[in-house]
# Entry
Amino acid sequence: MTTATRARPDLRRDASLSAVLAGFVAVAISYAGPLLVVLEAARAGGLSPQLTASWVWAISVGSGLVCLVTSWWTKQPVMVAWSIPGAALLITSLGDYRFSDAIGAYVVCGVVSVLLGATGLVGRLLQAVPRPITAAVLAGVLFPFALKVAAAVAGQPVVAGGLVLGYLVGRRWQPRYAVFLALATGGVLAVVTGQAQAMAVRLTLTTPTWTTPTWSWDAILGIALPLLIVTAVGQNAPGLIVMHNSGYDADDRLLLGASGVASVLAAPFGSHALNMAAVTAAIATSEESHPDHDRRYVAGMACGFFYVLGGFAADTIVSLFSAIPAGMLTALAGVALLSPLQASIYDTMHEGDHHRSVTEAALITFAVTASGVQALGIVSAFWGLLAGVVAYAVLRPRPR
# Structure
């Protein structure tokens, strides 16, 4: 396993077109997929276009700066993005609180993330929970999005159905660009059928909006706590696993601490949580980024650069997606999350080095998380994780 080095990188020697393209593809996939979850959360929470654009600016610029700095510092392809399961839980909870209270909860979540990450506690806790159980949390959060695709196709068979067909064609011949092809197919069909509102697209430079945080115990318990949990187990854990499996000795204290600090600073502008990325990290850390393991950090820096550019074009991005029919967005979000859903379900059902009872506990985790239960105002991801850990403690045989 390659250890991190702090020797100053030589970008003139290490830069390559393949690594830059890998960074660009990672950003484009984030905007074509995970960003849709954020936009749906903003719509469900009743946010104005200005606040929605500021949210996109904050998560983009925050992610980009962390990618740039940490990739350069560690000489590793560090990929940071916004919390997908965190945004997913906000779809059902954001509208229940004042927006300033939600911002306060984001700040609390970021501060606790810094403390837990910088102390190494997150890394130790994640190592203590069997991987199938943590994977089941992410699978349970993403599964409902896949279920909505069928209803979207039934409601808009031409646009949503064509989008799904485009995705399948892409997966057959160009898997990396399947989401792009799905988006393009759905967009063309929406224009042809008159369901798209092209005049709604705005070409402007984004100015972020500051919201002064306020503090509410209800929001802290209802948003900050579950956001912290789903981000740690659903994003940071898989992100660190991708880094390690790719041969990088990722410093979890540095990387989680840096993303936590960025989360705190970006929160007043609307950012809910920043974390290690997993899906896009697989692109940057692959041989397609660069054959030389030690030159793939350029992909992380390129990703950061394109994220920052995307942040200042947030108004245009938000208006572009607002012009798209709702059924198309639902279908696109569902197919875009199929790949991470498939990977998380695979990890859920493979026991690895653990006793076979871990897969049964992971299945319980998945079922509780996917149920959407919100006992005591806390989202199902927390209860799913708790149920899985308890089930595994009961089912696992004791050594004799």
In short: Residues 159 and 192 are 9 Å apart (CA to CA). The first strand starts at residue 80 and ends at 82. The chain has one domain: 15-130+145-339. The longest helix spans residues 217-245.
